[in-house]
């Protein structure tokens, strides 16, 4: 598999950060219904525990038991005293992906690609979009997905707010332009893009509202800081029964003999084009993947 010939990933509705220094959290991660587990060596780990957390994350990956979940390790920034050792250790591991914070430019992606030269073929490079520099280089960074391991972005609005000196409010008003531009750049180059974390984990209504805002913008899923956020996140980023019913109706209508070769037809009284057929097929495929995952989790 080359960097530009990747299989289509399973849904990535929910990506849960867990501190790699917490043994109980690592054990619990194997049982949670999130799509992605991110073993964190950065923000969630105190400086004195960084090396221990690195060893624990690598050991957890080697032990396995995460089932159908993708498992990534978020390293410390490469400008920190732990970053280089983190990168070397993760590159030699069996992790599905390495998540790198504070990526600023396409040149950063090139350097990371070189550093991962010895990693297993399927290891992906994931990047945090969380600096002022990165939001002005979204398209060239995303374009690197065509020639490198880069396959996914995660928004980091807490760090971006700090750097911008912006205020974090529930509506996320200061960041709305960057959210839409990040999704557009990611879509232009087939990069999966996940919304940033919601700091409110006690009030799930607040979380759900933010998740639905992310869905409105077109994000594939959302990064999480607490297991309580998983179920509402999966619900928001899963096709609804109404969505699936519409998609199946579109597919069935275009399959009728009298509609063969047509570029636009009426479905339920609405004009429906071939682009809607493509959307319908994609929606049904995602719905079927999610159903299979749920069956696997129950097995």
TrEMBL record:
<keyword id="KW-0479">Metal-binding</keyword>
<dbReference type="GO" id="GO:0000287">
    <property type="term" value="F:magnesium ion binding"/>
</dbReference>
<keyword id="KW-0460">Magnesium</keyword>
<feature type="binding site">
    <location>
        <position position="74"/>
    </location>
    <ligand>
        <name>substrate</name>
    </ligand>
</feature>
<feature type="binding site">
    <location>
        <position position="130"/>
    </location>
    <ligand>
        <name>substrate</name>
    </ligand>
</feature>
<feature type="binding site">
    <location>
        <position position="130"/>
    </location>
    <ligand>
        <name>Mg(2+)</name>
    </ligand>
</feature>
<dbReference type="GO" id="GO:0003824">
    <property type="term" value="F:catalytic activity"/>
</dbReference>
<dbReference type="InterPro" id="IPR015813">
    <property type="entry name" value="Pyrv/PenolPyrv_kinase-like_dom"/>
</dbReference>
<dbReference type="InterPro" id="IPR005000">
    <property type="entry name" value="Aldolase/citrate-lyase_domain"/>
</dbReference>
<feature type="domain" description="HpcH/HpaI aldolase/citrate lyase">
    <location>
        <begin position="13"/>
        <end position="227"/>
    </location>
</feature>
<dbReference type="InterPro" id="IPR040442">
    <property type="entry name" value="Pyrv_kinase-like_dom_sf"/>
</dbReference>
<dbReference type="GO" id="GO:0006107">
    <property type="term" value="P:oxaloacetate metabolic process"/>
</dbReference>
<feature type="binding site">
    <location>
        <position position="159"/>
    </location>
    <ligand>
        <name>Mg(2+)</name>
    </ligand>
</feature>
<dbReference type="Pfam" id="PF03328">
    <property type="entry name" value="HpcH_HpaI"/>
</dbReference>
<protein>
    <submittedName>
        <fullName>Malyl-CoA thiolesterase</fullName>
    </submittedName>
</protein>
<comment type="similarity">
    <text>Belongs to the HpcH/HpaI aldolase family.</text>
</comment>
<dbReference type="InterPro" id="IPR011206">
    <property type="entry name" value="Citrate_lyase_beta/mcl1/mcl2"/>
</dbReference>
């Amino acid at each position: 598999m080359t960097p530009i010939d990747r299989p289509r990933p399973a849904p990535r509705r929910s990506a849960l950060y867990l501190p790699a220094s917490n043994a109980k959290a690592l054990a619990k991660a194997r049982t949670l219904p999130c799509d992605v587990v991110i073993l964190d060596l950065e923000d969630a780990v105190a400086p004195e525990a960084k090396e221990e957390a690195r060893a624990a994350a690598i050991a957890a990956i080697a032990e396995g038991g995460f089932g159908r979940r993708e498992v990534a390790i978020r390293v410390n920034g490469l400008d920190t005293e732990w970053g280089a050792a983190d990168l070397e250790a993760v590159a030699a591991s069996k992790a599905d992906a390495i998540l790198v914070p504070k990526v600023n430019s396409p040149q950063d992606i090139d350097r990371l690609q070189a550093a991962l030269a010895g990693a297993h073929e399927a290891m992906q490079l994931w990047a945090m979009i969380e600096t002022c520099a990165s939001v002005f280089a979204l398209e060239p960074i995303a374009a690197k997905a065509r020639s490198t391991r880069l396959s996914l972005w995660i928004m980091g609005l807490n760090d971006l707010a700090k750097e911008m000196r912006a205020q974090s409010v529930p509506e996320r008003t200061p960041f709305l332009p960057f959210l839409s531009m990040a999704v557009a750049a990611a879509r232009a180059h087939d990069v999966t893009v996940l919304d940033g974390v919601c700091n409110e984990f006690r009030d799930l209504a607040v979380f759900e509202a933010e998740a639905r805002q992310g869905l409105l913008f077109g994000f594939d899923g959302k990064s999480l800081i607490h297991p309580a956020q998983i179920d509402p996140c999966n619900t928001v980023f899963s096709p609804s029964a109404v969505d699936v019913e519409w998609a199946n109706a579109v597919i069935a209508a275009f399959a009728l003999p009298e509609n063969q070769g047509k570029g636009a037809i009426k479905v339920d009284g609405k004009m429906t084009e071939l682009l809607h057929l493509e959307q319908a097929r994609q929606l049904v495929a995602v719905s079927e993947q999610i159903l299979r995952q749920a069956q696997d989790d129950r097995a």
